[in-house]
């Protein structure tokens, strides 16, 4: 049996020191106070910040005398044992119960006024009075008259601030670390209601399981116009409160990192006492990290698909514009068409209405018409199978129809060292990975011009493959007629600018 015992004592000043170490910024204290109102089933919380004090008032359940005593127990297990709130069955956020002592590192006094079911009281925690003695650990308790107009709830007042609290910083921190998305919970800062930030973009919700609990959230891929390097990473939440932001391997993505935002919730994760980080050398966090790296890899694939889709839309637009212009040029120059004589007004698309020279006025030539009809039927019976390349899923294909014939234009990926363009049968291929194509594709106008140049080049060579010089002269004429309106308009605008400058 021991002969005697030693009493363990704690210097009162250590409580303030611990608080200073746990909460290096006063806005962290504010976050803790507001989250306590959530645990107390508050529906509305009003935060008022002025240069010399901070007031946090709520309409929660308040505290009776026993509850006040429990409130000032350091490291109480109350919230761990009763992790759901009484009224709304909320998963309680607070854990350690040391926030009120830490407040004295930012303020000279900490006052609690509370009402609950007819009981009302005020407790004042004055730092100077607290430090006067080492033996008296009691706090002055004032029993007050219950105010029915005020109703149940609690008001916390921090006065004699060491330094003024930055309002913008306080708003940002509360937006990040308070469960603003929860039902029946509103937070007002100096009269302004705080609401969760809404981010526009492609939303990718996810739900994954681990041996310790679910991991769920949403990743958002921003439009390129909204990409930015601020607030990067995925917000990791425990019980609806942001702990920190993580990258899960995205830090090596380069510019794509600026396109990704999101939140993930994992209530089972162990966190540090100041709620600013995770305890990473635990099985829980390792399971969480494995799941999130898989989610991020799926996001990378989705980002690639969206990028390809966007690029495909741009290519389709440039190809359509180029084909429309070439069609207009061929209507002006039907003799340049490699598809033979085209009958007048045959009702087909493209240049079918533009007849070759000598076709007009020959309605009475029945023999010629009959021969042409037989030729067409013969071609219809035995169509030639064109030689085609195997296309990739990202290929863009459109057809330029001229009468009963035409060409198919295919923009696809043939590698940087592949040919710029080539023709097989009636199919014109354009290599979108060619360095020249990539350079010209940066702007829509040059993109369209480049595609039109390649298509008109191949069509001109189809007309007379043995005479490339004449083919290039035809190409020059086609391009001129294809873009003449735009060039004339630009010349007119330039001339007007010069005349205006001369005046």
Task: Walk me through what this model shows.
Helix 2 crosses helix 7 and helix 8 crosses helix 11. The termini are far apart. The protein is built from 12 helices and 17 strands. The protein has 3 domains: 182 residues, Heat Shock Protein 90 (2-Layer Sandwich), CATH 3.30.565; 104 residues, 2-Layer Sandwich (Ribosomal Protein S5, domain 2); 152 residues, no CATH class. With 503 residues, it is α+β, with helices and mostly antiparallel strands.
CATH topology of the largest domain: Heat Shock Protein 90
- Computed over alpha carbons, the radius of gyration is 38 Å
Helix/strand order: HHEEHHHEEHEEHEEEEEEEHHEEEEHHH
Strand order of the largest sheet: 5-4-3-6-2-1-7-8
Characteristic terms for this protein:
503 residues; alpha+beta; Ribosomal Protein S5, domain 2; 8-stranded mixed β-sheet; 22% strand; elongated
């Amino acid at each position: 049996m021991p002969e005697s015992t030693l009493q363990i004592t704690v210097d009162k000043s250590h409580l303030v020191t611990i608080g200073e170490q746990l909460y290096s910024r006063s806005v962290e204290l504010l976050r803790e106070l507001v989250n306590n109102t959530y645990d107390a089933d508050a529906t509305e919380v009003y935060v008022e910040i002025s240069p010399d004090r901070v007031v946090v008032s709520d309409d929660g359940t308040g505290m009776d005398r026993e509850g006040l005593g429990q409130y000032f127990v350091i490291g109480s297990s109350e919230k761990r044992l009763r992790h759901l709130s009484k009224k709304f069955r909320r998963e309680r956020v607070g854990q350690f119960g040391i926030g009120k002592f830490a407040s004295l590192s930012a303020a000279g006094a900490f006052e609690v006024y509370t009402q609950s079911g007819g009981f009302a009281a005020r407790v004042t925690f004055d730092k100077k009075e607290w430090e006067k003695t080492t033996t008296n650990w009691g706090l002055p308790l004032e029993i007050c008259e219950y105010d029915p107009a005020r109703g149940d709830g609690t008001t916390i007042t921090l006065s004699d601030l060491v330094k003024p609290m930055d309002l913008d910083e306080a708003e940002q921190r509360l937006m990040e670390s308070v469960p603003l998305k929860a039902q029946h919970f509103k937070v007002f800062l100096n009269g302004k209601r705080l609401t969760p930030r809404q981010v526009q973009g492609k939303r990718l919700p996810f739900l994954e399981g681990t041996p310790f609990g679910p991991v769920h959230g949403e990743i958002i891929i921003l439009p390129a116009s909204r990409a930015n390097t601020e607030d990067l990473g995925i917000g990791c939440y425990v019980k609806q409160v942001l702990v920190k932001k993580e990258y899960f391997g995205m830090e090596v993505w380069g510019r794509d990192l600026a396109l990704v935002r999101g939140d993930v919730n994992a209530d089972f994760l162990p966190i540090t006492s100041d709620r600013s980080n995770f305890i990473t050398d635990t099985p829980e966090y390792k399971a969480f990290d494995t799941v999130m790296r898989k989610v991020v890899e799926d996001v990378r694939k989705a980002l690639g698909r969206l990028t390809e889709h966007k690029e495909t839309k741009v290519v389709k637009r440039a190809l359509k514009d180029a084909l429309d212009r070439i069609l207009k040029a061929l209507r002006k120059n039907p003799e340049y068409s490699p598809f033979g004589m085209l009958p007048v007004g045959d009702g087909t698309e493209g240049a079918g209405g533009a007849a070759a020279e000598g076709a007009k006025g020959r309605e009475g030539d029945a023999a010629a018409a009959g021969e042409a009809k037989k030729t067409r039927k013969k071609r219809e019976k035995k169509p030639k199978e064109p030689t085609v390349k195997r296309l990739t899923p990202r290929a863009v294909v459109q057809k330029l129809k001229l009468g009963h014939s035409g060409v198919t234009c295919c923009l696809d990926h043939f590698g940087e060292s592949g040919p710029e363009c080539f023709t097989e049968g009636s199919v014109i291929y354009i290599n979108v990975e060619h360095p020249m194509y990539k350079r010209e594709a940066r702007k829509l106008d040059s993109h369209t011009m480049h595609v039109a140049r390649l298509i008109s080049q191949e069509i001109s060579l189809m007309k007379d493959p043995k005479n490339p010089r004449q083919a290039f002269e035809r190409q020059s004429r086609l391009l001129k007629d294809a873009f003449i309106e735009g060039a004339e308009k630009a010349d007119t605008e330039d001339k007007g600018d010069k005349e205006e400058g001369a005046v």
